[in-house]
């Protein structure tokens, strides 16, 4: 098992999708960052955090923006263009399970050494972290959802996983669409028996999952499509990303 040992001195960060010069879900990202800074370091959100995001996003048609805050240093912003095919992708991704011990995913640590190692080792599959009790936690860049018996199940934001911004909005749009969403522990055996599996993230939105070695294969079905359409409408103002 691997143990999560991020270096707190590297700070925390937020990554958001940028569409037509504006960052998506800015209030939610800033609120999560503010909470992490207060809990971890006892410091306030930088006063210029919002303006840095707005300035960084300006002029970017479709991309990602990363705001990093290291206590005692000036916050930094990094942006990059994103291929439209990666935002609400139609092509399913594969995942691979990695067992960790003592995982502390409640904050978006700037030190991604452990996760980057998993990603390099398992590429092109997306690493999905599993606790020692075989409960599914989260992907290296995403939260995980499974469709079981007509309901969407996702691991709870109980301190072990990042309370994803896309996760929260996906739950909201699913419930508005009349889909039952259950936040509870999700075992690997349950994942194997799921009808559909998908992930959510701050840049990709909803990402269908096609297979996991040694676990199963899934089709991208009705539930994935409905949640994706709802989140696209919320973020892009349309029912698709084209």
Q: Average the pLDDT over all residues and give the rounded result.
A: 94
**H and E order:** EEEHHEEEHEEEEHEHEEEH
Query: From the alpha-carbon coordinates, what is the Rg to the nearest angstrom?
Result: 17 Å
Q: Regarding CATH, which class of the largest domain?
A: Alpha Beta
Number of domains: 2
Based on CA inertia axes, which overall geometry fits? Answer: globular
Helical percentage: 25-40%
Structural class: alpha/beta
Gap between N and C termini: 41 Å
Total helices: the number is 6
Low-confidence stretches: none
Architecture per CATH nomenclature, i.e. the level-2 architecture of the largest domain: Alpha-Beta Barrel
Under CATH, the topology of the largest domain is which? D-amino Acid Aminotransferase, Chain A, domain 2
The amount of beta strand, in percent, is 25-35%
Under CATH, the homologous superfamily of the largest domain reads: D-amino Acid Aminotransferase, subunit A, domain 2
Number of strands: 14
Largest sheet: 10 strands, mixed
Provide an overview of this structure.
The protein folds into 2 domains: 7-82, D-amino Acid Aminotransferase, Chain A, domain 1 (2-Layer Sandwich), CATH 3.30.470.10; 86-236, D-amino Acid Aminotransferase, Chain A, domain 2 (Alpha-Beta Barrel), CATH 3.20.10.10. The protein has helices at residues 26-41, 49-57, 113-122, 165-176, 188-192, 222-236; strands at 2-3, 12-19, 22-23, 62-69, 76-81, 93-101, 126-130, 136-139, 143-148, 151-154, 181-183, 196-201, 205-212, 216-217. The protein is built from 6 helices and 14 strands. It is 28% helix and 30% strand. The protein is an alpha/beta fold and 242 residues long. The strands form 2 sheets. Strands 1, 6, 7, 8, 9, 10, 11, 12, 13 and 14 form a 10-stranded mixed beta sheet that branches. It has a 4-stranded antiparallel beta sheet with strand order 3-2-4-5. It is globular, with a radius of gyration of 17 Å.
